[in-house]
Each structure stands twice: as structure tokens, then as C-alpha cells.
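Bumping with the actual sequence this time:
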Amino acid sequence: MTGDDRAGASDGDHAPSADADSDGEPWPARLRGVTETVVATLGPNDRWNHAALGVHADGSASTRDGDDHPDAVTAFTYGNTRTRRNFHGRGEGVVQFTRDPVDFANAALSVYETSDSILESADAWVRVTATQVDARDEDGTRVETWRLDPVEATVRRRVVPVVNRGHAAVVDATVAASRLGVPGFDDDALRDRLDRAVDVVATCGGDRERAAIRRVDALVDDWTPTTDLPGD
């Protein structure tokens, strides 16, 4: 499940629509639980910052109607991130659906800025307005809840879903790495999760997953893998 394993329309075949699926739902896919995305927000330097963003479509974050469409889609920002500041400054962003683990690792753990709001690896994206609906303190960290309302959606490629444990391990590794040093989390347990992710990528991942876990290692100072990182 890499950025090179694409199927469907070519890069030039866009299918823009505010009603991206047959039921008129303005999101390009049915959302459930937490969907891991990359959000682009425009900063004061007029460059687009790409950051990992979990999009919530059920549970306490939102409710669903009988047709299994989310009545509300929300996301959380933790601390004084660029995404939080740009949401406050602009009130909007672009939620991107990408399968490329390297892009996801860069978005989750580094300052990843480009001149374009859309990553080449994005299969679909949604331009949203972002409205703060709640704020709270968790162990000294400000957590803000944002309601994301879709404005327009574009589907670039329709793909056949492929489940790859290596890809999932990269995503989990970025979550663990982002919590290192944060009050309320056990750093040793987080490092164990990172080591486990390395093992899963080595066993199940493809070239892009292996490149991504090496990128995680390069971006995280407070962790030294206990086993060798997988090569190409």
C-alpha cells in the first residue's frame, strides 16, 4: 500500500465535485471512527503547511444519522501547532487523503511546507472551513476541537483498497513518536511501540513503508531503535 501502487484515473483525470459520492455526501468517502489524513493550511508566509490530522466522524466527537453519514466531522489540535494557528488565522484548510507513508511521516513529525496545497500523493481532497467549537486543558496541553465543514471535494484517483500491516505500523509509529515527552504518556511504552512498528514494517512493508520508518527514525531524537531498520 504505497504511493506507487495507484489504480484508477491518471494524475490528470480529476473529478471535482461538491457531491463527490452518489448519495450527495460532500466528503469523497464514507468516514468512520478516526480517519488519518494530511491537512494543508496556509501560513502567514503564504506557504502551505502539511500536518497529520485525525478526522473524527463518530463517537463523542460527532453523531451519525440513519444513512450512516456523519452529521458532524471534527478534529483536534494539541498545543500551539501551525495547524491550530492557521485555522485561527484563516478558518479553513484542505483535508487530503493520501496512501503514501513517507508523506504521512513527514506531515506528522516535521515542518512540511510547500507552495501547493495539494500533495502529489493525494488521491482525493476536501476544502473545509474550520470552526473552533471547544477547548480544554489536558495535563498542561491546550486541546481545541474544530468542526470541519466541507466546501468542495475533488477525487483524483479511485483505488482498490489494499490492507498492509506495514503501512498501519508507520501510522502508529508517528502517533507514538508525537507523544514522546508529552505529560501523561509513558515514554518507555511509546518507545516499545516504535520498536514494534520497525519489526512490522520489516516483515510486512514495501519500499515506501521502509523508507517511511527510516524517516521516522531520522525525525525522532528521543528514540534509538533496538533492532536494525529495514533497508530498501
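The C-alpha cells above came from a reply further down the thread. The CA atoms of residues 6 and 159 lie 7 Å apart.
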